[in-house]
């Protein structure tokens, strides 16, 4: 029997992701991958998958999907408001960060994320999706990945590998870091900015704007004065780099960032705070805290213990 979900509403920016497609940046292909690694891995742990198994990532609003086939064990992670619609149209409020069974002709309606951006949908045994260069991450701008490198669309069928026997479910406490302090290390071109601008960057608040997606997060706040050159020779860049273009307003590069860039970088978000950063909704104010390598390494060790 074919087991699949029929997409009745695709949601906003619903794509398949895993931990990333590495080793290709020199060819102009970014690693991409899930935005919030802890929430992503939690969704897989809830259904008994390896944490790197491909899952469906959604932003702000997820899909409405109808299950066709044998009973499946699924989970939705993150701060998410969703309903399970039974075959008789009874509506049951879903519980995020808990696995649950879904049966033939039942629907899952992922209504919204709550004071956050990204959530994840995983299924026991994984989705039946094709790897591209060792990964199922979707890079929409380059049309790379499963589903023809595209977001979900109405009428798509999401096939999965196997049904689930038994009724054992799981629950994981997923704690969201509520503070708005983002720890960063110095960027390669921090000396391009005046001493006052450096002080401003590490002391004043910046607002997350609506011009934010998987590629980058534009901020609004104290204009940063470049005293050397507003452009540099293009060089390789990483996730979490904070570039400052000519208008003096920082841009944080996120998972689908370009592989090279020619704007000076004032700082770089540490790995341990990246998940927290990407879940900040537009309008949120954040502050940057400068830390050194020892602090960043210790924070990373604490971060990986959560997986």
Radius of gyration: 20 Å
Named at the architecture level, the CATH assignment of the largest domain is Sandwich
Taken from the alpha-carbon principal axes, the silhouette is elongated
CATH topology of the largest domain: Jelly Rolls
Strand content: 25-35%
Question: Could you characterize the architecture of this molecule?
Answer:
This protein is an alpha+beta fold and 307 residues long. It folds into 2 domains: 4-159, Jelly Rolls (Sandwich), CATH 2.60.120; 181-304, Cyclophilin-like (Cyclophilin). 12% of the residues lie in helices and 30% in strands. The protein has 5 helices and 20 strands. The chain has a 7-stranded mixed beta barrel. The chain has a 6-stranded antiparallel sheet with strand order 7-6-9-4-1-11, with no helix packed on it. A 5-stranded antiparallel sheet has the order 2-3-10-5-8, covered by helices on one side. It is elongated, with a radius of gyration of 20 Å. It starts with a strand and ends with a helix.
């Amino acid at each position: 029997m074919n087991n699949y979900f029929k997409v009745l509403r695709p949601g906003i920016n619903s794509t398949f992701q895993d931990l990333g497609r590495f080793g290709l940046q020199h060819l102009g292909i970014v690693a991409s991958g899930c935005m919030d690694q802890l929430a992503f891995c939690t969704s897989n742990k809830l259904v008994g998958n390896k944490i790197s198994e491909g899952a469906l990532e959604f932003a702000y609003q997820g899909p409405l999907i109808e299950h066709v086939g044998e009973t499946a064990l699924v989970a939705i992670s993150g701060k998410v408001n969703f309903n399970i619609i039974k075959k008789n149209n009874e509506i049951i409020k879903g519980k995020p960060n808990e696995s649950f069974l879904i049966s033939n002709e039942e629907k899952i309606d992922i209504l919204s994320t709550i004071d956050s951006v990204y959530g994840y949908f995983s299924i026991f045994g994984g989705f039946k999706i094709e790897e591209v260069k060792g990964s199922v991450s979707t890079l929409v701008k380059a049309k790379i990945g499963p589903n023809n490198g595209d977001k979900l669309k109405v009428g798509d069928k999401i096939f999965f590998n196997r049904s689930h026997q038994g009724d054992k479910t799981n629950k994981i406490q997923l704690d969201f870091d509520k503070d708005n302090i983002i720890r960063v290390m110095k960027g390669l071109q921090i000396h391009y900015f005046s001493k006052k601008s450096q002080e401003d960057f590490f002391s004043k608040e910046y607002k997350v704007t609506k011009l934010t997606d998987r590629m980058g997060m534009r901020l609004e706040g104290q204009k940063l004065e470049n005293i050397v050159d507003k452009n540099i020779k293009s060089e390789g860049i990483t996730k979490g780099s904070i570039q400052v273009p000519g208008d003096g307003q920082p841009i944080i590069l996120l998972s689908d960032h370009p592989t090279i860039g020619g704007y000076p970088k004032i700082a770089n978000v540490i790995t341990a705070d990246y998940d927290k950063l990407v879940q900040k909704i537009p309008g949120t104010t954040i502050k940057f805290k400068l830390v050194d390598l020892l602090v960043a390494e210790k924070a990373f060790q604490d971060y990986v213990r959560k997986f």
